[in-house]
Every structure is written in structure tokens, then in C-alpha cells.
Amino acid sequence: MTEILFDNTYARLPGTMHVGVAPTAVRAPRLIKVNGPLALELGIDPAGLTAEMAVGNALPAGATPIAQAYAGHQFGNFVPQLGDGRAILLGEVVDRTGKRRDIQLKGAGPTPFSRRGDGRAALGPVLREYLVSEAMQALGIPTTRALMAATTGERVYREEVLPGAVLTRVAASHIRVGTFQFFAVRKDHASLQALIGHVIARHYPELATSENKELALLDAVMEAQAALVARWVQVGFIHGVMNTDNSSISGETIDYGPCAFMEAYDPGTVFSSIDTHGRYAYANQAPIAQWNLARLAETLLPFLDENREDAIRIATERIEGFPAIYTRYWLKGFRAKIGLVSEEEGDLDLIQALLDAMQMARADFTLTFRALSTGGNPEALAEWLPAWRDRLARDPQRAEERQALMRAVNPAYIPRNHLVEEMIQAAVERGDYGPFEEMLRVLMTPYEEQAGAERYAEAAAEGQGVYRTYCGT
Ligand code: AMP
Ligand code: MG
User: Fold this and answer.
1) Same domain for 210 and 185
2) Residues 6 or more apart in contact with residue 418 via CB below 8 angstroms
3) Distance from residue 395's CA to the centre of ligand 1 (Å)
4) What is the pLDDT of residues 90-146, one digit of tens each?
5) Which of 199, 240, 326, 468 lies at a 20 to 30 A Cα distance from 91?
6) What percent of the chain has pLDDT over 90?
7) Which of 84, 188, 219, 245 is catalytic?
8) Which of ligand 1's atoms lies nearest the C-alpha of 245?
9) Is 245 considered catalytic here?
10) Are 199 and 129 contained in the same domain?
11) Residue 114: nearest ligand to its CA?
């Protein structure tokens, strides 16, 4: 068994914050995939990672398995206790760049937070999270990572009987807005203070000397979330379940349940079958991030000012500043997507006019931006293109430089929903992991055209386009 140099700081925090719990052994583990480059980044020899470790049958020396406590607003409704119901944190390692990373098993058996759940994960969602999270990483978007995937040899019971699997997830941390809420609702200030100290030391060490650390923390998380959601919308990513318990304090994308990528541009796009009111629709993601940050701010009120009225005033002012922060990131990203390095007042309107034209034409989001990056003139944009060319004439770049810049931010390949489904079907129904491997390989260099990978760049055929995702993962 390979050596992992654990240093488990979260497990050393007060006992109110976690519960010790070992993974439940499974019958017949088999490795599907080990992420070699990620293992090396973590200082782990990938050759020593086994199926037994990937499902939790064997615990590496130094692991202190725990389930973390957290609460959360689910679709707007507050649930005071959620917690890791099927995830077990093995511990933390400091990676080769000095960054602390969590190593967690998702689907490794029940915990005291499981409620009526079985603590397990099905193969399909595990492959989906592996592929999509690694694709997000390759796109340059902050995300949790996938270190290993393995089947358990056991069945899980959802709407149907499915093969069980475990994902080894790596994250800057698994601390969520909901983690703060868990202690705030219990008025457990001591734990909240320990959490704040841990988060600042771990994710925002530059804030340690701030005059008002908690306010500085709120600002920093707002900045990280604004940057993240802007990156999502720039690749058409729809998270699907932006509950406060799925909103990471470090600013990584976390929890790939019902997520999917938009094809035809429509700001109202929703994929999740349970999101009947479109709360987490494509264009609602920034307002929802702001709403989640307001929930974080509420947990920090006692630390912002001794006077509650003043604390509320300070927090409200900050949260109201979110749209401006978000717009700054949004503009920066979309300017690059249309090839601008200079800034003009009218850029926002120019970008919005492009999106409006795309919506009218139901143009594929990814293909349209890629076409603009390779000198194509999409027919649907005939009326918009002259305004763009006028603007480009005032931008100090040669055409070749501009196209290279644009190709570096407008991917040719995203995890297209119909192909993700095809990949899952092959694995679940036929035990064929070929499509998983091939799709993963293509998505590792999303900004470079690859010979023979044409089908991964194409939009779903008519009729394949209506896509539904499910939360029962
Ligand atoms: P999610 O929808 O994955 O963000 O999960 C919401 C909550 O339900 C979290 O507390 C999870 O740990 C818990 N949960 C989800 N699936 C299961 C399961 N199969 N067994 C136990 N708990 C689960
Ligand atoms: Mg979750």
C-alpha cells in the first residue's frame, strides 16, 4: 500500500464539527480509474493506489476518517442538519505546490448523517462526476477533482437496481456555506470561531491580520464565488443544485449531481428534473450565488459589529455589492471570448446583443464562440457581425493573435450531455469503459482541435437535445 502523508487539521477541530466513522467494507472492489497526474501532484505514487483503498476496504496509515457536519438551504428551505451522509473524509495532504487538499471517499457507506440514505453511490453518477470535474479542471475552472473511481461489486437501489461505486474526491476543502450555517443556527459561537480561524488559515491566510477578519472573509468568498460563477456561464455550465450546502467556501465547483452543459443558448435553461421553478437556471446562477452569500453573511453577523443593527447594515452593503463584482468578472471573460483586449463602455451591450442573437437563433453556445475564434461567420449572427468588426477595428491586436487568444478561452469540446449519457450506458449496461476513457482523453485538451474527435464537438441531433438530469445520485 502506497504511503500518503496525511496531516488532518479538520479532524483536530472541536468534536462538534465532525464525527469519526469508518467506511463500510464492500464485497468485490474493482478499480475503474486512477488519476495518475493528480496522485503525483498530491505526492502519492499512483502505482500503489488499489481497489481496496478506492472503496475504503483498506485505510491508508494516517487516515482519520470523519463525516463533516453541515446544514443548508435546499431550494430555499433551511435544513438545520445535513452533513456527510455518504462521504467520508480520510484526511488532508499538502500537495507539491504547498496547497492543503482533502481526500474524501464518496459512496463509502452510511454515517451518522445518512438519515434514510444508504450511504452509497451508483456507478453512473460516479463516472459522471469523474469526467465532468476533470473536464472542468481542463477548462481552467476551479473544481473538486477525481483521484479514483471503483466499483463495489454490490448493488444500490434507486428507481432501479444499479451497480455501486465509490469516487475518491479531492478538494481544497469540503467546507461549505452550510458548514457555517450549522453552527450559526445552534448559536455555537465557539465552533463557528474555530471554523472561521481554520478557513482563514487554510484558504485566505492573507486575511489573518485584517482589522475585521470576518468581514474580510465575506469579501474574499464573494470574490471567489463571483469569479467562479462567471467562469461557469462562460462555458455554458449549469450546476443544477446550488444549495448553500453545495456552495464551497474556497470557490471551487462542488457536487456534480444534476449538472449539465447548455447547448442551444437560452438563459432560462434548466436540466434538473426537480428544479421545477427554474431556481437554478443558467442565468439565475449569479443571483443565487448572491443569495447564498447573504446566508453566509448572516452567520457572520455576531462578528461584524457588537451592535446587531450595525452588523446587518454592514453585511447588507457588502452583499448589495455582489452584482458589480460579478459583472466585472463577466465582462472580463466575455470580452476575451469575443477577442477584445481593450475596454470600451459599449462592450457589455455588444456582448448582450450577441447573446440575444444566439438566443433568437437557438445557436449552440460552444460552437458559436468556437466559430468566431476560427474566422467563421455564423449565419445566425449576420446582423451582429458588422458591429463586432467595427469594434475589433478599435482593438490593438492582429487577427492571428486575436484568434489564438479566443481559441484559448472558447473550447471546442465540452462534456456534451448525450455523450455523457452514452458513456454511462456503455459502462453500466455492458461494463465497457472504452467510451469513458476516450471521452476523458478528448476533454483533457478542450481548447485544441483533435483529429478524429469530431463527434465530441458536435451538438446533439434534433430530439436528443431535450435533456433531463436527476438528483437521485
Ligand atoms: P446532495 O444532494 O448530494 O448535495 O446531498 C444532500 C444531502 O443528502 C447530503 O447531506 C448528503 O450527504 C445526503 N445524501 C445524498 N445521497 C445520500 C445517500 N445515498 N445516502 C446518505 N446520504 C445521502
Ligand atoms: Mg451536496
Assistant:
1) yes
2) 460, 461, 464, 467
3) 49
4) 999 999 999 999 999 999 999 999 999 999 999 999 999 999 999 999 999 999 999
5) 240
6) 96
7) 245
8) 4
9) yes
10) no
11) 1
